[in-house]
Design goal:
Blueprint lengths: L29 E2 L2 H8 L5 E4 L5 E7 L4 H16 L3 E7 L5 H17 L4 H9 L7 H10 L4 H8 L2 H16 L7 E4 L2 E4 L4 H12 L1
Parallel strand pairs: 3-4
Antiparallel strand pairs: 1-6, 2-4, 3-5, 5-6
Helix pairs in contact: 3-5, 3-6
Length: 208
């Protein structure tokens, strides 16, 4: 069973993005317009984790085929435990080719069917896979988590899901997110991978 491969990223943004290596120092924070932060938080596709009304909001733009996004996902349970007052939000940012687009369709279909409460297990299991993550592999993992595959494919290929992906891509582009993962913490962006310690430093910075 193959998911539809509608092309929605003009020119395919994969060639424009890089996958950064982790540096000893975190990416330098850059101020971003508050309007773009608000637009991100209002994305229908955003996945809200952690504290419902945290004192700091951290947003991660990620791609399921980005190796440093995988490392970020591995840190996520520990981060949520260490920062109970943090609101952590995930934005599917499928920019690394057709497999990522298909996987994101499955992930967003799963989100629409089962909500953010059940999304985190799928997120972690997809990043636990070895090798390229494809729509077929994502569908198999979602089914293992109890998803109805027929319904999931229908929603994954729906125009609504396509529009969600377009909006996330346009917004990430407006924010200047030229690498995955990238983060928003308060009104600052961090473009590139961050260790757990670096994330906590950024959160402390946002708290002032």
């Amino acid at each position: 069973m193959i998911l539809s491969r509608r092309t929605f990223l003009a020119g395919c943004a994969a060639s424009q993005l890089t996958v950064p290596a982790f540096a000893q120092n975190a990416p330098e924070p850059q101020k971003v317009p508050v309007e773009l932060v608000e637009d991100t938080l209002n994305l229908a596709s955003i996945v809200k984790l952690g504290h419902a009304h945290g004192d700091v909001i951290m947003v991660e733009y990620f791609d399921y085929n980005c190796p440093w996004c995988k490392r970020s996902a591995q840190d996520l349970p520990e981060l949520l435990t260490a920062e109970p007052d943090l609101s952590y939000m995930l934005v599917n940012f499928a920019v690394l080719g057709a497999p990522s687009v298909e996987t994101t369709r499955v992930a967003l279909g799963f989100l629409q069917l089962y909500g953010p409460e059940k999304y985190l297990p799928l997120h972690l299991v997809l990043f636990g896979l070895r090798g390229p993550v494809t729509g077929q592999r994502a569908l198999a993992e979602a089914e293992r988590l109890g998803a109805n595959p027929k319904k999931l494919i229908e929603i994954a290929d729906a125009p609504k899901t396509t529009e969600w992906m377009k909006k996330a891509f346009r917004l990430g582009n407006s924010l200047g997110l030229i690498a995955t993962p990238s983060f928003l913490v308060g009104t600052e962006s961090y473009v590139g991978g961050m260790t757990l310690a670096q994330k906590r430093e950024a959160i402390a910075r946002a708290r002032g």
